[in-house]
Amino acid sequence: MKPLLETLTAGAGYLAKRGIDEARLNMEHLLAHVLQCRRMDLYLRFDQPVAEPHLIELRALVKRRGEGEPLQHLLGTVEFYGLELISDHRALVPRPETERLVDLLVTQFKAAPPARVLDMATGSGCIGLALTQAWPSATVLLADLSEDALELARLNASRLGLDGRVKLLRTDLFEKITGEFDLIVANLPYIPSAEIATLSREVRRDPALALDGGPSGLVIVERFLKEVTPRLAAEGHIALEVGHDQGPRTAELCREAALAQAEVRGDLAGVERFVFARR
Questions:
Q1: Right CATH for 77-278 from 3.40.50.150, 1.10.260.40, 2.60.120.260, 1.10.510.10
Q2: Could you tell me which of 42, 52, 119, 108 has the C-alpha nearest to residue 80?
Q3: C-alpha distance across the termini of the chain, in Å
Q4: Is 163 helix (H, G, I), strand (E, B) or coil?
């Protein structure tokens, strides 16, 4: 058996040598996961030994993290807008930037939440489920082309007790969508095909279907905007997350699609990646 602090320090050094950002923080999360305690509790246990069975489990996880497997996949869950979601290979890892999109929507519609909401390309269900939690009166449809992603979204909805308030649909964009919505939100694939090979090891573990936006990165966004208007209620809104340099062009595409009040908003770092418009 090794003392906890020695185990933590050695593991962080191993991860750092393999190019893992925030190696110590990663190691703290993995160690807390194995010991089934809070990360902050580790600081009260530095002198305690780590039992061999825990060390064996930890070594396997650290090796996988050093090979680029996302931390969230190893932990099995991720925190998103106050919800604990299962995170695995079936969908994009929910990211803090997307939490900001949810926060902007909750703030914008605080006085009168939309009654009918569509979360297109829902993936893990993070956006749609967060909005379902925030807006108890809303009817929310989670849609995706990937059956694997929908299985994950269904599992997350069930774990959160929200499965009775959402519907799920496998569809290629609006192919099988009927009815009108007061809000359609989408985090569509937007990475240019040629850039996928340059992404971090962690991001390349996400499904290619959820990343590849075609040669320009905006092929699927363009399709979405050409098809969205008939599915919007009168004065219905759309909200999109796009790439760090795609906001202005996406707003132009909104205007070309005869959508009104197209505007670009920034994330917490000021990157203009969110595009809002309405019918």
A1: 3.40.50.150
A2: 119
A3: 64
A4: coil
Mutual orientation of helices 126-134 and 96-108 as an angle, nearest 10°?
Answer: 30
What string of pLDDT tens digits covers the 279 residues of the chain? 789 999 999 999 999 999 999 999 999 999 999 999 999 999 998 999 999 999 999 999 999 999 999 999 999 999 999 999 999 999 999 999 999 999 999 999 999 999 999 999 999 999 999 999 999 999 999 999 999 999 999 999 999 999 999 999 999 999 999 999 999 999 999 999 999 999 999 999 999 999 999 999 999 999 999 999 999 999 999 999 999 999 999 999 999 999 999 999 999 899 999 999 999
Query: What is the domain partition of the chain in residue ranges?
Result: 2-67, 77-278
CA dist 55 → 8, 192, 217 (Å): 11, 41, 43
User: 3-class SS at 45?
Assistant: coil
| Type of residue found at 144 | D
Q: Does domain 2-67 have CATH number 1.10.8?
A: yes
Per DSSP, the residues of 171-223 read -STTTT--S-EEEEEE----B-GGGGGGS-TTGGGS-HHHHB-TTTS-HHHHH
Q: Is the CB of residue 267 less than 8 Å from the CB of residue 273?
A: yes
CB 202 within 8 A of CB 176: no
